[in-house]
């Protein structure tokens, strides 16, 4: 499994698209949301999405950045012109978060949702060796780590049916009784959505409670890219952006473009261009095994790349993939030699 982060925009769009299928009986999340990149003309965007000028807005970068609230990277309760100016002031500007510096290039805009801060909930689903784990708290928000003792964790074993898991009985005691049925239904629907669409990680923090359902205010998601052949048609026009602070090299861009044009899978991440150990591995599962073995043998600091080719690539695609890795490997000599 290769977990790959997706933009919040795509995670919420996917949730809105399949809401009626997985969250029956709950008030529909309409998925009003827009993505802005350096090529976007804001006035044209407003013509395509009239709600932008009719509602108060939330604006934030959408580049796999965590803790945006604590980084003062969220604009709340803004007019369209305020949102427009805020984005223009930051577009293509470098910022530093911790030790990582990068340019802001993608922003998300969605309606501002007035709500009671005491009704911010936290829910996440993560994968592990035994299956999947559901995490829930009635005290969501930016400080969830500080109140982690309020989070309950419900394990869903491999091959088990979520409908057979007693969710309601395991919810936090401080969750109002009148909300437990609705929360239970939402969690079961979210798990089915997570499983059916090939997610490996899905977090909504916070989500707020309405009279008839929930609204996801902030979402973090990662897909299992090896599930693309099974449910990729449900993902739609999606992209896997590089993490904040890590732009793609020319070689990574080349393989990414090759992958996008192919029905096969071609992946490449350069970890250490000066590394001595390079891999050309057929199969996503095999690539994980090889990487783990390199680490186990004590060569983690020498591992140069991670990637795989699979799905019956053509002879030319395989040639271009191998040529790229061998070119990277042989650019600089190492007196100790190199390993492929």
TrEMBL record:
The reaction(s) this protein catalyses: oxaloacetate + acetyl-CoA + ADP + phosphate = citrate + ATP + CoA
SUPFAM superfamilies: Glutathione synthetase ATP-binding domain-like, Succinyl-CoA synthetase domains
GO biological process: lipid metabolic process; succinyl-CoA metabolic process; tricarboxylic acid cycle
Keyword Manganese tagged: no
Entry's Gene Ontology molecular function annotations: ATP binding; ATP citrate synthase activity; succinate-CoA ligase (ADP-forming) activity
One Pfam entry name: Citrate_synth_N
Localization (cell): Cytoplasm
Domain ATP-citrate synthase citrate-binding: 246-340
Keywords recorded for this protein, A-Z: Acyltransferase, ATP-binding, Cytoplasm, Lipid biosynthesis, Lipid metabolism, Nucleotide-binding, Transferase
GO cellular component terms given for this protein: succinate-CoA ligase complex
Keyword Lipid metabolism: yes
Record-linked InterPro entries: Citrate-bd, Citrate_synth_N, Succinyl-CoA_synth-like
Domain ATP-citrate synthase ATP-grasp: 2-235
Record-given protein name: Uncharacterized protein
Taxonomic source organism: marine sediment metagenome
């Amino acid at each position: 499994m290769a977990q790959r982060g997706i933009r919040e925009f795509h995670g919420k769009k996917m949730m809105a698209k399949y809401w009626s299928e997985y969250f029956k009986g709950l008030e529909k999340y309409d998925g009003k949301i827009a993505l802005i990149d350096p090529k976007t003309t804001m006035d044209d965007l407003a013509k395509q999405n009239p709600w932008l000028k009719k509602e108060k807005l939330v604006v934030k970068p959408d580049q796999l950045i965590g803790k945006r609230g604590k980084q003062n990277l969220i604009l709340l309760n803004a007019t369209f012109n305020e949102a427009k100016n805020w984005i223009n002031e930051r577009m293509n500007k470098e910022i530093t978060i911790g030790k990582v510096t990068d340019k802001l290039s993608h922003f998300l805009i969605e309606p501002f949702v007035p709500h009671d801060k005491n009704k911010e909930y936290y829910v996440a689903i993560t994968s592990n060796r035994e299956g999947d784990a559901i995490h829930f708290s009635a005290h969501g928000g930016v400080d969830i780590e500080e109140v982690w003792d309020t989070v309950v964790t419900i394990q869903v074993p491999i091959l088990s049916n979520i409908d057979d898991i007693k969710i309601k009985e395991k919810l936090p005691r401080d969750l109002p009784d009148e909300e437990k049925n609705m929360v239970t239904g939402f969690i079961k629907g979210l798990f089915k959505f997570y499983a059916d669409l090939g997610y490996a990680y899905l977090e909504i923090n916070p989500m707020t409670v309405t009279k008839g359902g929930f609204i996801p205010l902030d979402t973090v998601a990662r897909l299992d890219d090896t599930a693309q052949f099974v449910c990729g048609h449900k993902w739609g026009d999606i992209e896997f952006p590089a993490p904040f602070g890590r732009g793609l090299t020319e070689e990574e861009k080349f393989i990414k473009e090759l992958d996008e044009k192919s029905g096969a899978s071609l992946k490449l991440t350069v970890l250490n261009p000066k590394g001595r150990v390079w891999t050309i591995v057929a199969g996503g599962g095999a690539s994980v095994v090889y990487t783990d073995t390199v680490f186990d043998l004590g060569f983690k600091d020498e591992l140069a790349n991670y990637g795989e080719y699979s799905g019956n690539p053509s002879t030319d695609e395989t040639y271009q993939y191998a040529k790229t890795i061998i070119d990277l490997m042989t650019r600089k000599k190492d007196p100790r030699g190199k390993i492929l």
